[in-house]
Amino acid sequence: MAFLACNSNCLSKVPDSRRWNKNIKEQVLKGNAKKAILTYINMKELGLHADNYTFPPLLQAAADLSSSFTALALHGQTIKTGFCCHLFVQTALLNMYSSLGFIGDAHNVFENMPLKDVVAWNSMLDAYVSSEQMDNATLLFHSMPLKDLSSFNIMISGYANMGRTVSARSIFDQIPTKDTVSWNSMILVHTNAGDMVEAHKLFKELPVKNIITWNTMVRGYVRNELYAEAVDLFEEMRAGNVKPDFLTMTDVLSACAHLGSLERGNKLHIYAKDCRLDSSPHVTTALIVMYAKCGSTLKALEVFYKSQCKDIYCWNAIIAGLGFHGYGYSALKLYDKMRENCIMPDDITFIGLLNACAHAGLVEDGCQLFNSMEKEFGISPKIEHYGCMVDLLSRAKLLDRAFQLIQAMPFEPGESILGALLSACVIHRDLDTGEKLMKLYFARTRQFSDGEFMMFANLYAAFGKWEEANRWRDKMNNSGIAKTTGCSIIEVNGRIHKFLAGESRI
User: Fold this and answer.
1) d(CA 208, CA 300)
2) Which of 26, 258, 397, 487 would you label with 86, given CA atoms 20 to 30 Å apart?
3) What is the tens place of the pLDDT at every residue in 16-27?
4) Do the beta carbons of residue 295 and residue 324 sit within 8 Å?
5) Helix H or strand E segment including 171
6) What global pTM score does this model have?
7) Are 382 and 397 in contact (CB under 8 A)?
8) Domain for residue 270, yes or no?
9) Residue 210 pLDDT > 50, yes or no?
10) Which domain holds residue 38?
11) Can you say whether residue 349 is alpha, beta or left, with left for phi > 0 and alpha for psi between -120 and 50 degrees?
């Protein structure tokens, strides 16, 4: 109410709505959607009238608030004031309904527009693309009387999200004059499709690269598990005096985490400090994950405790990191501290906690946490949580309970869950549960991986049943499946090298 009083004192002397419109727009640009709506209410109470410049930012505010009630009320206001037929207002209505996911309503607004400029056409095109209705987007695109560069870029972006490289390339080749957004979108198409060779080719062809270009490539390498290439590209970026942002650092730290390169990770941490990027919650989380995966839990804890802004992702990262290294009690203590700080856990929190309990042998604590998910927090356990519980019980030699949980869970058990218990049956020499588990395998599929064939063989070998063990090995050989060759990654003189088992040179 103090805000409203301030607005009343400051703006009530202004006879027209221009100052109010400016104030509303500024609030929306600052991300203060609620204040923008309250300013409009205050404006109406003072008897001032809205115009065609008032409603577009207000409709954006309703979209930002994800409030369908506010959206409908404002739509009603545009009709009442007679501005619902104004082109700017209609386009803003279209964008609002699109942001709220009401594509049918957005289409109705679009169809009822007597005059449509290219901005309106692009807004409807973007609505279809954002909702993954690419067939409708394609039809609309080809029916557009006039297209600009944004029209082409929107289509390429849509095809990128669906991995349709041929369709995207067709649109890309039609663009008379391409901008950086066009090239970045096309690179994204190939990174999403897993074709990093073609993505890199486009990257090299692009005459002017911006930070989004570099980030798209770095993230593409990380998502396609080409971690060494991601680190190398980052070094190339630094050599070219291109300043990274928090997204760059987050992805390259993730690459170091997967490579287990602590030395490189340490250097990146120093570089992030020098660039003042280490204060970003995204970078903080990435640093915690990197240090934990590289085995330096003390450094992970140091980063965590020095962080001034700890969001749920930071807490989840440190809990998971401690749990992975067997510090179950420490992970549980941090969970208690997290609750004391009034931070609500999410499903990822419980995956970290259950893994922590599994690695530390804390069966009862794990069971209590699993049962508390739905009872206390309304979080329905997913297949990942059941997988953690099977792992917890298997490690504790409670194989029968683990098998009962698999039978009772409301999901089809995946390979990782069945594999965890079958591996435990081999380790703890439980042929009875192992054979019952094999029946589940047979009911699920008749096509097995090399790892599954080997576990079947090892189960029988553990009990000296060599004939049966050899039968499973012969089945694997006859099926044409070869045992996956192991590989190692090492760092020499700052360079990452990967080699397969049996190779003598790096």
Assistant:
1) 38
2) 26
3) 678 888 888 998
4) no
5) helix 165-174
6) 0.79
7) no
8) no
9) yes
10) 1-115
11) alpha
